[in-house]
Amino acid sequence: MRQWELTPEPALAERDLAADMFNHLGQASFSDAILGQINGYFPAGSCSLYRIWQDKPPKLLYSHSFKRPDVTRDCFEAYLQQGLYQTDRSFDNVRRERPSLLHSTIEDFWNPLHRELVYRRNHVRERLSLARKESDGSVTSMNLYAHNEHSGYTERHIGYFRKLAPLLLAGVERHIQLPREAQATTHNAKRETLFRINPTLTERELDICERILSGMTYDGIAGELGLSRATVITYRNRAFERLGIHFKSQLFALLASSTGPQTTLKPLSN
C-alpha cells in the first residue's frame, strides 16, 4: 500500500466535476453523473463513503456502482459481519497524520478472508481512498474501486485522483446531507402545525407527536429521546387528549386537514 500527504491542486478536471456536482446535487442522477465524469479520467466501477472507529463497528454512509452490478453493499456487509474491520490496518497512519490519499491493491490486505470476501468474491482489484481523521478519533474514507474488467491504476490515474478527491469527498458529503436537511424541515413544519392547532401542547408532547407522524415506533421514539416506552405512551395520551383524538390515524387526519389538500400523509395502524 502506498500513501501520500494530501496537497490539493486545481485542474480542468476539478472544474468539470464541480459543474456536474452542482447540476445533480441532491438528485437521483447524482451518483451516475459523478462516476461517469470520473471515468473520463480513470476507472471507477464503484465508490463508497464510510466511517470507521477503533472501538465500534464501521458505518457505511454512501455507496454506488457504475454500469455494472452493484456489489458495494455486499462488500461492506462482509467487512462488517465477518469482523474484518477489526483486523484492517489500512487507516492506522491516518489517525496520526493529516488527511491522506491511499492506493491499495488486493495484496495489501494481509487477512486472507478480507481479500477473498471483499475483493475476490466481488471482482474488485484496487482501491483509491481519501481518508480524513475526525475529532472523535474515527476516520472518514471516500473510496473508488477498480474491478477486474478495469486496468490497474497508473501514476497518471493517481495524479487525477489527487486533484479530484477533495472535491469528490465534499460533494458526496453534501449530497447525502441534503435529504436530512429536507427531513428536518418537514419535521419542523409538522411541529409548527400541531402547535397552531393547540398551543397548550408541551415541548415533549410535540416531540412525541412529531415522531409518530414520521412513522417511528414507540420503541424507536423511546430510544431516540432517552425515555421508557411507558413514558412515551403517557406523553402521547396527554397530547391526544389535548387534541381531542384517540388514535394515530386521527393524528394524521388532523394534520392533513390543517395543512391543505396537497399534503399527503399515510396513516399508520393503531
Describe the structure.
The protein is of the alpha+beta class. It has 2 domains: 2-178, Transcription factor LuxR-like, autoinducer-binding domain (Beta-Lactamase); 198-259, Arc Repressor Mutant, subunit A (Orthogonal Bundle), CATH 1.10.10. Helix content is 48%, strand content 16%. It is built from 9 helices and 6 strands; from the N terminus they run βααββαβαββααααα. It has a 6-stranded antiparallel sheet, sandwiched between helices. A hairpin with a 5-residue loop joins strand 5 and strand 6. The longest helix is centred in the middle third of the chain and has 43 residues, at 155-197. It is elongated, with a radius of gyration of 23 Å. Residues 260-270 have low confidence and may be disordered.
Give the oligomer, counting copies of the same chain as homo and different chains as hetero.
single chain
The separation of the N and C termini measures 56 Å
The CATH topology label of the largest domain is Beta-Lactamase
Number of strands: 6
Structural class: alpha+beta
Beta-strand residue percentage: 15-25%
Shape: elongated
